[in-house]
Design goal:
- Strand 1 and strand 2 form a beta hairpin.
- The longest helix is centred in the last third of the chain and has 50 residues.
- By secondary structure, the chain is mostly helical.
- The radius of gyration is 25 Å and the shape is flat.
- The chain has a single domain, classed as Orthogonal Bundle (MetI-like fold), CATH 1.10.3720.10.
- The protein is built from eleven helices and two strands.
- It has a two-stranded antiparallel ribbon with strand order 1-2.
- It is found in: Cell membrane.
- Pfam families: BPD_transp_1 (PF00528).
- It is a multi-pass membrane protein.
Length: about 280
């Protein structure tokens, strides 16, 4: 009975979408591969890739600081995570875009000493720079917690056993801790990447020509608001689908690697017992 209800509701939804002339699917098809839309897609994907790469590096450093033995480093990392997880992403984007109101000039030099180079803030912090800074700081706070949770999920006994075998701290981290932590980190990291892609639409408020802002520029002239928003929605779904497929493939590969490692460990134990 439940399946029948779901099928009827799905059929009604599909029929409504494709029979309602106000969706204007001809207009959707017309602008789907429009050059401004394609350029906006490139900007959105580029921002996502650059931001995720920077966030992975900075997030790893913040996570290691948070887990370190230094009370000062741990406190600084915890404060960073608290601040940038608390402030909404849109507020951060607007703040960095208007940084010149707070600091008209930016300088490089010795702290409390002479300045060697001075820049005009408006020339340095443009829409793209402000977007990358805001998105990266926001994502770093979340990714740091994801990485920390993954590292903490690895039992201490694994590291102790590796240390007893004579492995160096670097070898323990890259050969023992990190491979096991990745199984915990990858699934939420994929979700975070998808969330980041969708969050790039917020940069439209600082006039950066991403996918959403590109379609906004088009429908501001031809007044075809709904069809152009449908174009943006479909492209977001396509890109999200590709990311999801890549995430699933990576998870399966990590799963196979784990199973192979477990099989090898089992064979070693059986050999030891037989001896």
């Amino acid at each position: 009975m439940a399946n029948a209800i779901v099928l009827v509701l799905a059929a009604m939804a599909v029929t409504t979408i494709f029979t309602n002339p106000r969706f204007e699917w001809e207009t959707v098809a017309k602008y789907f591969f429009e050059i401004r839309v394609l350029k906006g897609i490139g900007v959105s994907i580029g921002m996502t890739a650059v931001t995720m790469a920077l966030s992975l590096v900075s997030g790893t450093l913040v996570a290691l600081m948070r887990m370190g033995d230094s009370r000062l480093m741990s406190t600084v990392a915890a404060a960073f995570i608290w601040v940038f997880r608390s402030i909404p992403m849109l507020v951060q984007l607007l703040f960095w875009y208007n940084l010149a109101a707070l600091f008209p000039t930016l300088s490089l030099g010795i702290p409390w000493g002479p300045r060697f180079i001075t820049f005009d803030s408006n020339s340095v912090i443009g829409p793209l720079t402000a977007a990358i800074i805001g998105l990266t700081l926001h994502e770093t706070a979340y990714i740091a917690e994801l990485i920390r949770s993954g590292l903490l999920a690895v039992p201490d006994g694994q590291r102790q056993a590796a240390s007893a075998l004579g492995l160096t701290p670097d070898q323990i981290f890259f050969r023992v801790t990190l491979p096991q932590a990745l199984r915990v980190i990858v699934p939420p990291m994929g979700n975070e990447l998808i969330s980041l892609l969708k969050a790039t639409s917020l940069v439209s408020v600082i006039t950066l020509a991403d996918l959403l802002y590109s379609v906004q520029l088009i429908y501001a002239k031809n007044f075809q608001t709904v069809p152009l928003l449908i174009v943006a929605a479909i492209w977001y779904m396509i890109i999200t689908g590709v990311i999801t497929l890549l995430q699933q493939r990576l998870e399966r590969r990590l799963g196979r690697h784990t199973m192979l490692s477990a099989d090898k460990a089992g064979k070693v134990k059986r050999i030891e017992h037989s001896v």
